[in-house]
Automatic annotation (TrEMBL):
Name recorded for this polypeptide: Formate/nitrite transporter FocA, FNT family
PANTHER family recorded: FORMATE TRANSPORTER-RELATED, INNER MEMBRANE PROTEIN YFDC
TM helices/strands, residue ranges: 53-74, 94-119, 131-154, 181-199, 206-227, 247-271
GO molecular function: formate transmembrane transporter activity
Chief subcellular location: membrane
Length: 283
């Protein structure tokens, strides 16, 4: 019996195929593909149940308190020197590292993740799902923030020598006027959206990416609605902030500023750079 002869592709074809794979891998995270990764993630988030969003959002609201706690610990124990401000703000990154790398629902991440599906598929159904998710996640984040603040204020879980620093940080964060809080929230919204945009290609550098850019939020004295909600809640429970001032002087201005920064500024710019490629591939 004659031996079976397997047809092997020419060597040049194999080389071309390997080269094509190498080029594809090198270009795997082009802006269009980054957009597609985030859009698909956003689409998955829009399909999650309210129960799942609530528990994930509460967890995020509680763990983001590590930002306030970390910064307060540095402020308490570092010497009162000119460089202390820059170092203590590293503590602010702790909560964001826990929440983002733990894949929990943080409202400001959703100002880009869940908006990209709406950019591509403009429909009332997508818009309704987006608003549902925003409302559920933001409410859950605030509940978690108040739970963490209650732990700080009403229990001995946090050493008493750290509590004055928590109150001091809270007074500063909520003490800006509504206009100033609004404008300082816009860069924070842009920075968080930028983190989300860069994460798909960060790989092992994700930790340092989150650390660096969330440190920038604190060092730049920008305002973030969820981390700020922990400070707002701590000051309210401590008796230093009224509900009217908390809502209208801090919460709403910062919320609107974060949404504008994350959605109207960064997301629209990100969509603009990939729009032609996306629409061409759909034809």
């Amino acid at each position: 019996m004659a031996p079976l002869i397997q047809n092997k592709p020419p060597q040049s074809a194999v080389s071309e195929e390997a080269e094509e794979r190498s080029v594809s891998n090198a270009a795997a995270l082009s802006p269009k593909l980054i957009y597609e990764v985030i859009r698909r993630e956003g689409r998955d988030e829009l399909n999650r149940t309210n129960r799942s969003l609530i528990w994930s959002g509460i967890s995020a609201g509680m763990l983001i308190s590590l930002s306030v706690l970390g910064e307060a610990i540095f402020r308490t124990y570092l010497p009162d020197a000119e460089w202390r401000y820059l170092v203590e703000n590293l503590g602010y990154s702790l909560g964001f590292i826990a929440v983002i790398m733990g894949r929990m629902q943080l409202f400001t991440e959703n100002t880009i993740t869940t908006v990209l599906p709406l950019m591509q598929e403009r429909s009332w159904g997508i818009l309704g799902s987006l608003l549902r998710l925003w409302g559920v996640v933001l409410g859950a984040n605030v509940i978690g923030a108040f739970a963490a603040a209650a732990l700080f204020i009403y229990t001995p879980a946090v050493p008493q020598e750290i509590l004055p620093a928590i109150i001091s940080l809270s007074e500063h964060a909520t003490g800006m006027g509504p206009a100033e809080g609004f404008w300082r929230a816009i860069p924070a919204g842009v920075i968080v959206a930028l983190i989300v945009w860069m994460l798909p290609e960060a790989d092992e550098a994700a930790f340092f990416l989150i650390l660096t850019f969330t440190w920038l939020i604190a060092a730049g004295d920008f305002t973030h609605i969820v981390a700020g909600s922990v400070e707002m809640a701590a000051l309210m429970l401590h008796g230093g902030l009224g509900i009217s001032q908390a809502i209208f002087g801090f919460f709403l201005p910062v919320l609107v500023g974060n949404i504008i920064g994350g959605t109207l500024v960064f997301t629209l710019v990100a969509w603009g750079q990939v729009r032609d490629d996306v629409e061409e591939s759909e034809r």
